[in-house]
Amino acid sequence: MRTLTAALRLAALALWLALPLHAASAGTATLSSLAQHVAQHPVVRAEFTQTRQMAALKRPVVTTGRIVYSRERGVLWQIEKPYAMTYVLQDDKVVEIGADGQRRERQVQGLAEIGRVFRAVLSADTQALAGYFDIAVQGTTAQWTLELKPRQPQMAQVMERIQITGDQFVQTLRMDEAGGDSTSLRFRGTQGADTLSDAELQRFNGVPRTP
Questions:
Q1: Which stretches of the chain drop beneath a pLDDT of 50?
Q2: Structural domain contains residue 128
Q3: Hey, what's the signal peptide range on this chain (predicted)?
Q4: What is the pLDDT of residue 198?
Q5: How far apart are CA 184 and CA 52, in angstroms?
Q6: What are the backbone angles phi and psi of residue 25, rounded to the nearest 5°?
Q7: Enclosing domain of residue 147
Q8: Which of 126, 122, 75 is nearest to 97 (CA)?
Q9: Distance between CA atoms of residues 161 and 22, nearest Å
């Protein structure tokens, strides 16, 4: 469950950060210049590779899959390898969908707080975002690094910092956890869209897929 919670925190932040950041100039990057296009697309899709380093394990745990953000419905976090599993993040609940299509609702501690952060980043509410993190931006809009350090004790118990690098799109995202573990995400194939596919709608709505 702790792994799931960490992944969902990353998913919430990553979907904002995976949106296209149109670098029309190579001027100094600022939070406002990076956030100005966050509301451009109602739907965003990306492929990801997640690498989780845990002190208790000698080898990292690597998962790959796809992530889908819908402004109206929430987030689909679809793991494809080494196993098939989908998580649907909506408001105050998480639904787990197994390879057999069975849906199981899970209660995740701190999910309401995740939702508040999620809404702040997705709406480019920099004032609200600054209430959760100390924010530092380096580089230019052509190649930049963004570092977030939690200000609130509840978040600081879980994460130490989040570092993001990118150019027109986010390239990498790394979260260092308070306990010494770390989770990294590498994105590729990020695309914006106006609507969800039928299959995505079915997963959000809980309708079994037609064979």
A1: 1-4, 15-26, 37-38, 122-124, 208-211
A2: yes
A3: 1-23
A4: 92
A5: 6
A6: -135, 170
A7: 2-191
A8: 75
A9: 25
Q: Is residue 41 part of a domain?
A: yes
**Sheet (strand 93-98) strand order:** 103-106, 93-98, 85-90, 74-81, 61-70, 43-53, 182-193, 170-177, 159-166, 143-150, 133-140
Identity of the residue numbered 197: S
Look at residue 23 in the predicted model and tell me its pLDDT. Answer: 41
10-61: pLDDT as tens digits: 555 554 444 444 444 445 556 666 555 445 678 888 899 999 998 888 899 9
Q: Is residue 119 part of a domain?
A: yes
State the total domains in the chain: 1
What CATH number is attached to the domain comprising 108? 2.50.20.10
Q: Which two tokens stand for residue 133?
A: 């993190």
Radius of gyration of the chain, Cα coordinates, nearest whole angstrom: 17
Which tokens sit at 129?
Answer: 């975002």
In a domain, 156, yes or no: yes
